[in-house]
Amino acid sequence: MARKQKRTNTKSFWHRIRFKYKLSFFNESTLEEVWSFRLSQLSAFAMLGLFAFLLIVFTSLIIIKTPIRNYLPGYLDVEVRKEIMQNALRADSLERMIQIQSLYLNNVAGILSGTMPIDSIREIDSLARVNPDYEIPRSKEETKFVKEFEEAEKYNLAVLDPNPVPTDGVFFYKPVNGVVSAHYDANIRHYGVDLVAAPKESVLATLDGTVIFAGFDPNSGNVIQVQHKNGFLSIYKHNELLLKEVGDRVVAGEAVALVGNTGKLSTGPHLHFELWYKGSPVNPEEYIAF
Predict the structure, then answer these.
(1) What pTM, to 2 d.p., does this model score?
(2) For tag attachment on the chain, is the N or C end more exposed, with fewer CB atoms within 10 Å?
(3) Residue 10 domain-assigned?
């Protein structure tokens, strides 16, 4: 009995919502039917849902395609975002230029106050190279020792170096004043020395040369490489700021970067310095007294 009553109520519900009503419009003067239409509750709900959907779509199109979207909170025009990005890039460039200018002014102030020696090409060249025509006079004891040594080693083929590195008359400038924290070790592919130094201290070119690379590496940070005339290549890694660009000529002792802590392989402010000769790494401590 209850199940039969439930079926009856269900049929009655569907009958009610599908039952059509007639809506007519009459002329008041002549009582003539002008317009009429039939509508059920189900069709009325469907029409209302369709109208709501169309209204939402129309409103969304107006917001997306017209400038009204700029007045919505949290929404910015593409041009505004582009301008913000350009301003951020300009601010970063200005900050870098301010750092370079500040370093330049500090150097000028040091020269004017007398705390820093004047840097010139003639003075640096005189420090970087030795006059090959000048020889220190030998004492009698030294002359005797050299003669005996040459006689003893005359037939010793083990002392001959098939690939000599030409360092006679060349003075390597120390790139930075710091403490050696890691030495050269080719077995672990550590082709240089790590020098712990104060942050933003000047990194100096070890010899005269030309900058052949100046850029950023994910592992080594800001890197600058200088090619020298005598076949040497010096590499300076983990810098905070690079002061030279590719193609710039540098002289020995000239600042090319600032000590930093950039790159994944850096654990603190220091300089990783490498020295290569004709494509092969050499131990910098054999040429520079750190």
Answers:
(1) 0.46
(2) N
(3) no
